[in-house]
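Hi support team,

I've been running sequence recovery on a batch of backbones for a student project. Most finish fine, but this one hangs at about 90% for roughly twenty minutes before it completes. I'm not sure whether the input is malformed or the queue is just slow. I've pasted the structure tokens below so you can try to reproduce it. Let me know if you need the job ID as well.

Thanks,
M.K.
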């Protein structure tokens, strides 16, 4: 392979890597996700809802409201290694008079996978929302959130977690 071709290929590879890094660091992909889900970032770097999609309004408004109490709405994984897959379970109790129905749990990035109780939670009963966070490529201080969509008085409840990835 001649020197000019090697230089051209190396330049293309470098520009491609630079473009991908620029997109990830600029938050373009994150912004697109926030816009799709009608979310905005507040000063604490956590997702909050500005509007409820029309499809959810019909479902939520037709259900009797209830209340929910989470043991904790924030969790700190502490110091973890780059590439660690860590898990946490948020525990809650239905403190209202009607069954609690969770429609969805939305993570703000693909590095967080939520799973949750999909059956109605009777008044006085407990439920769980488990998250798995993949720290690969997330070096530094990380602050993420998930949003619980349900028939609770507050129909969208943000839960937060953080970690320091080394």
């Amino acid at each position: 392979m001649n020197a000019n071709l090697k230089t051209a290929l190396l330049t293309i590879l470098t520009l491609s890597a630079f473009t991908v890094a620029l997109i990830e660091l600029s938050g373009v992909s994150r912004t697109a996700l926030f816009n799709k889900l009608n979310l905005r970032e507040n000063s604490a770097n956590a997702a909050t809802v500005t509007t409820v999609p029309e499809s959810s309004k019909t479902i939520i408004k037709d259900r009797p409201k209830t209340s929910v109490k989470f043991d904790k709405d924030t969790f700190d994984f502490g110091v973890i290694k780059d590439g660690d897959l860590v898990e946490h379970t948020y525990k809650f109790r239905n403190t209202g008079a009607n069954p609690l129905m969770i429609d969805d749990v939305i993570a703000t990035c693909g590095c967080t996978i939520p799973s949750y109780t999909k059956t109605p939670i009777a008044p006085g009963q407990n439920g769980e929302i488990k998250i798995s966070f993949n720290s690969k490529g997330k070096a530094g201080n990380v602050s993420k959130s998930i949003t619980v969509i349900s028939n609770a008085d507050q129909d969208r409840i943000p839960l937060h977690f953080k970690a320091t990835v080394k």
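--
Follow-up from support: It reproduced on our side and the slowdown came from queue contention, not your input. The two ends are 40 Å apart (CA to CA). No action needed from you.
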